[in-house]
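Why does this matter for the project? Reviewers at the last site visit asked to see concrete outputs rather than summary tables. In response, this paragraph embeds two records directly. Each consists of the residue sequence and, immediately after it, the corresponding structure tokens. Nothing has been edited or filtered.
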Amino acid sequence: MSGPDKPKVIGEEWSDERVKGFLAIDIYDKAENPDYHVLLKAYQAMRAGDFERFIGFFVEAGRDVNAANSEGETILDLISQHRKGGDYAQALEKAGAKRNSAAGN
């Protein structure tokens, strides 16, 4: 099986098919922004290089890199708070992601 259901293995190379599989992640809480949810799950599961590839597929699919959670926080706002989030944040910024100043960042 390929995609987000496959167990995480450290150091394993991810195929484009597996990376793209995150585009199909469904959400249970219909009040949550689906684009934010997908970005969060990809960030949590992927290494920085795979995440950067995913962002390219995400944008190509017409998805919103500036989607916000219920508190108005974008995924870039969240990742920017993490000590090891620099490469992830850089990939988002290259794709046009912005911090949401209204979220207090």
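We now turn to the second protein, recorded in exactly the same manner.
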Amino acid sequence: MDPTDTRPTEKRTFHHEPDDGAHIGTSIAEAIAAVEGVDAGDAPSPLESVVDTDALDALFAPRNEDCTRGRGLVRFPFERHLVTVWADGTIVVEPDAVGG
């Protein structure tokens, strides 16, 4: 590892609130941007290049008005990060967890 490299190396946890009207893909992009220390629109490649964000929205959407999803997760690599999205809205970004 380059001693002058100041990228964060610890995983960080974020939370998506579907009631805010935000899409989970937006929350994931914002989480990755926060870890990278950049604006969400400045990611080197769009999140959609590795995962179908509409499918994530559908997967984690409430089953009906009174019942949210309580279990399950999706994990995928994005850039140099490993991203885990839990059904409860927790987003974990692990920097440098993926080679490349």
